[in-house]
Design a protein that fits this description.
Layout lengths: L1 H45 L3 H20 L5 H20 L7 H4 L3 H10 L2 H25 L3 H94 L5 H29 L5 H14 L1
Helix pairs in contact: 1-2, 2-3, 3-5, 3-6, 5-6, 5-7, 6-7, 7-8, 8-9
């Protein structure tokens, strides 16, 4: 039973692992399409020269490669790839002809969302602080170039969205972790209940077998001996009836002895049935009735 439980647990882990891999593949595909769309839109807005366009393409390709590496490596390497994405994104914005290219700036959401999925609490907080710092630096430079309320509002809006995304992500991750723990605990309790139920069933089966064995011993030790004695007495009576002359007094005495044996057998049958507290079946009732008829 324990081997079956372990096998089921292993299979369940394999299924959950495959489901996580499928989700990661789908998210990576969607993420890649969004990144390519933003990069192409930003590049079209820039209309750069050949040299600057080459740098933009290199930085964009590097950002895209790092975004894919995040999903195929371990957590430490993924964290390094996320940080490198932020650095590459900062360099990409530096190559822009505008104070801020909003298509490129929207790419800050990519490492933020990756961090929500892959990083623990303190690492996610650190990533959020780094993202907000780089984004705020860009808007500070924009404000120094052209100070107005719209630029300040946009800076606050973008950075507020980053903080909000990280907060929602941490709350969602905490919820799903607790839900997973609860589901795992419920599954363990359910397995324990199944084991207890199986143990109880086997215990009941063992008790039934033991009771049957005891009934067999009771019947063999008591009723079997009495029936053997009754058969022997009946054979003695049969042999006496064949002799000449027949001694009626002795025959009557033997008949009384046989009747006493039968009564004792009837008493023991009743005692066994009463002691075992079992329902007397139709066959048992027929046997008891035959014994009563013989007694009369």
């Amino acid at each position: 039973d324990m081997a079956i439980i372990i096998e089921k647990s292993v299979l369940k882990e394999e299924v959950m692992k495959q489901q996580r891999m499928h989700k990661q593949v789908i998210y990576a595909m969607v993420q890649t399409m969004i990144i390519i769309g933003l990069i192409v839109a930003g590049y079209a807005l820039e209309n750069p020269s050949v040299a600057r366009g080459t740098l933009i393409v290199v930085f964009s390709a590097l950002f895209l490669v790092l975004s894919v590496i995040v999903f195929v490596t371990k957590q430490k390497i993924a964290l390094t790839a996320i940080i490198l994405q932020l650095v590459v994104l900062a360099l990409l914005e530096k190559e822009s002809r505008y104070a801020i290219n909003y298509f490129y700036h929207l790419l800050y959401f990519v490492p933020m969302v990756q961090g929500v999925f892959l990083l623990a609490g303190r690492w996610l907080i650190g990533l959020t602080a780094l993202t907000v710092g780089l984004s705020a630096l860009t808007f500070v430079e924009l404000a120094m170039t052209e100070w107005n309320f719209a630029n300040v509002a946009l800076g606050l809006f973008f950075n507020g969205i980053y903080v909000f995304t990280a907060s929602i992500g941490m709350l969602a991750k905490f919820y799903f972790l607790e839900k997973r723990k609860t589901d795992q605990l419920n599954e363990e309790l359910l397995d324990a209940y199944r084991q207890l139920r199986d143990f109880q069933r086997k215990r009941e089966e063992a008790a039934v077998i033991e009771e049957r064995q005891r009934i067999a011993r009771e019947l063999h030790d008591h009723l079997g001996h009495q029936l053997t004695a009754g058969i022997m007495q009946a054979e003695i009576l049969s042999s006496k009836c064949q002799g000449e002359p027949v001694n009626l007094q002795a025959l009557k005495s033997d008949m009384d002895l046989l009747k006493g044996t039968m009564r004792e057998q009837l008493r023991q049958v009743r005692e066994i049935v009463s002691t075992l507290k079992i329902d007397v079946s139709a066959t048992s009732q027929m046997v008891v009735q035959l014994l009563k008829d013989f007694e009369e």
